Amino acid sequence: MADGKQWYNSPQDSNSGKKPAGKPVSPVKKASGKPVARQPVKPQAGAAAPSGKKAVKPSGSVPVKTNGKRPVKPAQKRMTGSQYTVKKNPSSSIIPQTQPADTKQEKSIIPKQDNAGKTTPAKAPRRKLTAKEQATAREQKKIMEQAKRKEEARLKEQAKIEKSEFKHKNPSQKSAESRAIRNGILGAIAVAAALLVLAFIVHHLYDYIAEKPHFSFVTTGAVEHTIGAKALIVRDEDTIVASSSGELVTQITEGSRVAKGQELAIVVPEEMKSTVTDLRNVQSQISDVQQELILAGNVAEADVIYRNYNKNLSAILDSVRFDAMSGNLTNMSSYGSSVNVILDEREDEMSRIDFDDERIAVLRNDEKVYEAQVEKYASRINAHRPGIVSFRLDGKEDLLDYQMFLTLTVSEIKSYINSSVGAISSDLSVESDMPVCRIAQNESQYLTVYLSSNDAAASDFAVGTLHDINVRTEGVSIDNCKVVRCEKDNSGMLITFETSRYVEDLLDLRTVDIEIVITETDGMRVSVSSLVNADYAPKGNPCFCVFFAPDIVVSTDTFAEGAVFNINILPVAAAEGEGEDNAEPLPGTSVISCTVVHTEIVDGIGTIVAFSTPNDYSGLKKLDRVYTGGYKASFVDTSTALGMTCEKITVTDYSGMASVYQNNQGFVEEIRVILLDNDREFAIIDQVGRSTVPNLDTVIITNPKTVKPGDKVD
What we know:
Distance between the termini: 113 Å
Helix content: 25-40%
Largest sheet: 7 strands, antiparallel
């Protein structure tokens, strides 16, 4: 049309079945003004309108102006039941069936027009489908679902075929996928292997780090209870004075035993110091040449002499290192003197060896010249009696007279103990008419201490009793020190011990810290760390325990903790009035005020009752030896006057009850034991009653926290 209008083809009339004649279509212009060709719509015979809707013929066939815009479609009529059609699936060959027309024809629906002139379809009431229509609809739905599944299967098969063809045409893609699969499998295997290795490492690392049980045999030993104190050392000694002043040059080592008249040292005057220095230099040169010849292997005899004297030098050097580490420098001058003496003795022996060397011969001549000059002007010091010589002095040698010491008052001796130094020092510079050395007798020495009344009782240190003393700083243990004086005052007691041992070892000391052994218990010894479920006796009074055999009925209620008993032992002969006429009846034994501190029934062994008492119970430990004919032991509760009587008991010292773990054929077994004594490090144990374990063949676990009874061990 020349005016730009377009006539739409009217759809087929549903009643007449005829196709209206189509009108030509004019090109539609876009907003840009250019004509766009529009293809006429050709409806197919028997096909439904697009989107399942039936086209509605515009009333009056009024042409619509586009004005460059998309034309607005006229409102469509609502399709009646006879006009329902099924949209054809392009992939299916099923021909949709037309719904049968309803017998009753619906009323015609007149479309409404709004104010703008647009046609709005009127809403028709919803008609209820009949049973036949519903069955038909379900059948059609089922057919459509089957067609959809077939189409999906066909598409999957087609994609698979295309993928196979693509792999066939592209072999590199196939090999890449194969490599990817192979790499994935290998990666999974590698990850699994790494996890297994990691688990193996973690298991063995935990097994390595985890603490394992340690084993040890039960050994014999002792536990000591000591009292620490500061001791003053007094010896039978006197001093030797110098006739002139100068520098002291020792001729023997510190602590050497000397004879009467033996030369001990020389005093070199001040003006001869340069000569002494020259002498030392010549001797040093001789030593260097000798070392050179010895290293060359020319003189075997000299090598033997050096080795022998090196042992003595090593001992002094060890002492120097020990004092240097502890910060004690007071003994260095004495060590220097001893080293010089050893070197002089070594040189004296080396001078007797013919090295067959011109250099040594020349140096020996110079040495003799210097020695002659020194001896001409130096004064000599000789021993006036035999004994042990020391060049260390503290000025108390003449004050602490060996004979007068026992008569000094307690206050005077306490003053000496507090004011005296430990190690005695030496000085190589001497003055005329002043002491330069001392000679001590080695027959005996005194060790005097002052103890507080809270530390010990005077009855423990009666005159004539023997005690062991440990000097840990010197590594010395002095046995059987005899008490020669024990005197009390208001705050404590003064005790003097006498011993003839280790005089040389303590020669350079005036005071020293010692440990006096009060009690000592021997037996099977184990470490405290190997004890399990330990129940220690309370501090205070000494304790003992009574063992009742399994055939003796013992009530734990009778021996409740805290109950106080009197224990009486009556011989059988005295109890029954029997015995020989001429034999004296044996006296009984009694221990009163015995407080129960522990009661325990050991399965299959018996009952243990431990008591604490301030009284002497030593007689109870001798029952089997004293009352060979038998006895009766009665236990009477002091509060209720009740108790029990039996004919056989076993009494031992008591420090507590504990368990030890033993290795019994590869399995951990718990054994209850009695603690006879213990300190912070060790414990002396004993068997419970008639048990035969533990013994010296028992293997115990020293770190019992790593296992429990019944565990398997190697």
